[in-house]
Amino acid sequence: EEWDFVLVSDIHEMGSEKEIKRKKFLDELSKKGFTIKKIEDTKLFYGVRAPQHIFWKYQCLLTNPDSRQQNSSAQQDVPVTTRIRVVHFILQNTVTSDLEKLHDLMKKKVFEAAFPLHKKEKITEILKKKWARWRVLFKEQPIEEIRDYFGEKVALYFAWLGWYTYLLIFAAVAGLATVAAGTTVFSSSQVSKEICDANNTIMCPLCDQNCSFWVLSDTCTYAKVTHMIDNEATVVFAMFMAIWATVFLELWKRERATVATSWDLYGWDEEEEELALQLINNPQHEPRRYQHSYFRSTIVLILAVLMIMVLIGIAHALVIYRAVAMALFTQSEVNLLSRHADTIAVMTGAVLHYLTIIIMTKVNRHVTLYLCKLENLRTFSQRENSFTVKIFIFQFFTNFSSLIYIAFFLGRINGHPGHYVRIAGHWRLEECHPSGCITDLFIQMAVIMVLKQTISNIMEYLIPWISHQLRKKKKRPKKRSMMLGEEEEAEDPCKKHWLKNYELNEVNVFSLFNEYLEIVIQYSFTTIFVAAFPLAPLLALINNVIEIHMDAIKMMRLHRRMVPRKAKDIGIWLQVLEAIGTLAVIGNGLVIAITSDFIPVQVYKYIYSPCARWNHTSMDCSTGYINNSLSVFHIRDFEPHTKVLPEFNGVQIKECRYRDYRNADDYTYTIQFWHIFAARLAFLILFEHVALCVKLIAAWYIPDVPQKVKNQILTEKHTNLRDELSTAEYSTEV
């Protein structure tokens, strides 16, 4: 027997309110011609099968888009995915005499679950063998079979994810090449050498109370790591990634056009199908009109802005933590903490940032659902698009606010010795390392990406697996002992199958959405600040290869069958990806112009270095850069409450150095500061305009729809018109 859906209910007392409500709902289904089969176990199971006339109506209203054999019965004509989709819609929109729908009844615990069945068919065996197992990690996905079993929306997600993962190979290779180029200057960089040899350069204390001066050469290893990331190859890589992001989207548009044509999706309209299903469910149905309320929109906008301000406030809290942690670690009696206070503060701050991401992701979802409820949009696709945009904006601020601070504000708003900017008048803000701030951004991104792709993925797989195992081990009632002469009752063949499906984990309505959001946030990490973390594409590639098959195993073996949905493309996510591509150009331009030391070094080489002043071409033009980039501070000008140890290694200290371009007498900015500022601004404008022009040229050069697909559509239109003309001429002659 073939059953479209199974409804599960607790065994309620006869005559109870829940039992009456359940009976009313099942009676409404019977009036519509549904066949219902009841099986009793620890729960009540109701198998539901829709009548054939529902699918005849569906075919007539939608000009039979899914028919494969015109002369067959409806059950053979309509694909299983369409059949499940139609039945699901009717179940969700059937109204009882108490004006309650299935959703309301499930809230009141009348029904516990409603799900389509995983069936033991040839297609399920193919998917389990070629897709939902770890042995086929590097094999091509069976997209056609995924479509036939889970519908177009799921198939398009995996097609997009597979395409993105394939193109990540090129980005990962470019990232590895950038890191490899950086390793060649790990020990040979002139700037790193100067820091490592600066045994006599006394730096100003890192805290205000009982902190000693320190020697610049103590940070030799940190400087080497910084210049392994921050070099000329990084600029080329940032430009490459801006072009890569555009090429990826343009090639995906071509791939999607090919898929949409082969699946005959161009003629399908989501709104038309929804109206058709409403009429099939209720012939007297009147469509809900489009409405727009400026008052509602204003309220939603105000609440969304308030939420964004809360998320920015959380980023400020992380900044405060880093400042306080830096001060405490620096004054710690533990030698490891005091020597590496800045690095430990950055790493613990990154872990704390990851924890806030976990917590705020749940909060963001509840807030977004509330805002969408306030909007009260007409169609499911409108609600889905609105939800997607809002949750992405909230998640973007959750994930990137702290990174934006590190990239563009850290070490630039902290003041200078004698006049530090302080939190609550007590803790001073962090400073950048003399070799730059880009390593802080590198550490923050590395920690977050590694944690997200290990802990989150492990939990994403383990929780459903453990839940499934626990559900399987729940004790079933013992078989009743047989009386003498009594025959054993044969067990219904459906019972075992339905129980096995019921033991699987419930499918969350946001299951596919969560997967999209996870990968799109990863795409943001891979593109927006990739100049600071060239290994991001490699980590994303490794994650995605595992993610594809982990999702497949969850969908086929651990979760109940997802209700198949139809779609032409990946929807609003494409616009989100295009917005990220533009942000990537701006973000990487700002990282190189502001965070990186690339511009100050170039300004020094061409204006202030020995090469520029005395035409010494035989020496490295960055010689003397570190000394030039450090300003002098007289310790007599320290703030009154600052307590530093005046002696260092037995020597009385009268002045120390700090990273900035200020005059030694009045601590105002030098002319070199303004030269660097102008160069940063000029580079930013040039980089962004060149990158955006290249993006536009790439978008123009690569057509969204392949010529083969255009010609196929053209031929089909021509053939259809010719057939109609022949039919019209024949009718006229008769």
Would you write up a description of this structure?
- This protein has 734 residues and is α+β, with helices and mostly antiparallel strands.
- Among the domains are: 5-120, no CATH class; 707-733.
- Helix content is 61%, strand content 7%.
- The protein has 26 helices and 16 strands.
- The strands form 7 sheets. The chain has a 4-stranded antiparallel sheet with strand order 2-3-1-4, with helices on both faces. It has a two-stranded antiparallel sheet with strand order 5-7. Strands 6-13 form a two-stranded parallel ribbon.
- The radius of gyration is 32 Å and the shape is elongated.
- The chain starts with a strand and ends with a helix.
Topology, pairings included?
Layout: E1 5-9, H1 17-31, E2 35-40, E3 44-49, H2 52-61, H3 74-77, H4 80-93, H5 102-107, E4 113-115, H6 122-130, H7 143-150, H8 152-183, H9 190-196, E5 202-203, E6 209-211, E7 214-215, H10 220-229, H11 232-262, H12 270-281, H13 294-330, H14 335-339, H15 341-375, H16 380-408, E8 415-416, E9 419-420, E10 422-423, E11 427-428, H17 438-472, H18 493-502, H19 511-527, H20 536-558, H21 573-595, H22 598-608, H23 610-614, H24 625-629, E12 630-634, E13 643-644, E14 647-648, E15 651-652, E16 655-659, H25 671-701, H26 707-733
Parallel strand pairs: 6-13
Antiparallel strand pairs: 1-3, 1-4, 2-3, 5-7, 8-9, 10-11, 12-16, 14-15
Helix pairs in contact: 2-12, 4-12, 6-7, 7-8, 8-11, 8-20, 9-10, 11-21, 11-25, 13-15, 13-16, 15-16, 15-17, 16-19, 16-21, 17-20, 19-20, 19-21, 21-25
